[in-house]
């Protein structure tokens, strides 16, 4: 397929007046049939082709206009489970730190930031940039689900592409790919609304896939892509019988920056990375944020992860022979009224410029968040993707895009008035950290028991 390398143009809207005819570029008898009748999309998960991935995307898009219960007509619970289990199997074979080695200099590596269930924007961006293939690698940098209404659909499309083109697609873990976040910010409730009695199996399969997601990708050995940011050096492992357990650093121990070797050796974090024990590196990677001020400190605004200054970025780049850190995680809400770093209206920011290289943020959910109280102004942010090219691979080209509007009508799957705009550490039902290693269904988590806590204030909200 042909690459469209031009700047992504804004907003070819899906017409609300023609809900059964979304503006899909995909065509062909199978797609027509799926769109007309919402037939089950019987993917053979052992042999997913690019055509299958495109057909599934078109079918999910068509179903999105018919309300939440229509999803299971095109992707029944059993099929969703098969798809997610196949994804989990594939991801389990991948290391914590994936090496993306472009075979030649005409390969592009396109990096998506947070997509947060905004199916129509993801499909628009994919159709504009082109689909994965030998010369077009895609990295999706986490936060596929939660907040937006079509998290399962986004996850299913990414899973289908990963299965269709495993060598051309890298999926990385964001903080929302966890039991606690999905119980709080909508994905779990979305599955209840869409799958009813079939929900527990789909949720379990999704969490297995989340726990298997790699944490980072190094592109051409010079660019590191990860969701949140830099991470601390884990405490030395104990010897003997408890070798796998890590000591907790004594209180007051200064934080030391972790290395690529630490990242390579780290656990992917389990179902619910808690920041405790072996999940420390994973939690930092998924939750940390850059700041303008020098230093390396705990992230008190989020209550989890680190904040790190340009000196930390400089040291990390220099010590690991890197020239670019590309991260996501902060949308327009997180950057609202921040004075030290740029806002996210353009879908990307350059946060640290150092002699060793840069740290940039890419955010791919335009007009985010999808659900917002009526009395609040929308941020009207663009989304962007970063395109890395040889021979340097360290100077992203930014492709920006506006939201595909109007979106199909949908209820929100989380209490957007009651939870913080920006992600913070949240205790759910007192279960935080207790499920870090297992693959249990996590159904003990309830969305209704958010602990009032010692936690951070929502000072980043507007
Ligand atoms: Mn995030």
From TrEMBL:
GO molecular function annotations of the record: metal ion binding; protein serine/threonine phosphatase activity
Cofactor: Mn(2+)
Organism: Elliptochloris bilobata
Catalytic activity, EC: 3.1.3.16
Alphabetized SUPFAM superfamilies for the sequence: Metallo-dependent phosphatases
PROSITE patterns tied to this protein: SER_THR_PHOSPHATASE
Protein name: Serine/threonine-protein phosphatase
Classification via InterPro entries: Calcineurin-like_PHP, Metallo-depent_PP-like, PPP_phosphatase, Ser/Thr-sp_prot-phosphatase
Manganese keyword on record: yes
Species classification: Eukaryota, Viridiplantae, Chlorophyta, core chlorophytes, Trebouxiophyceae
Catalytic activity: O-phospho-L-threonyl-[protein] + H2O = L-threonyl-[protein] + phosphate
This protein's record includes keyword Oxidoreductase: no
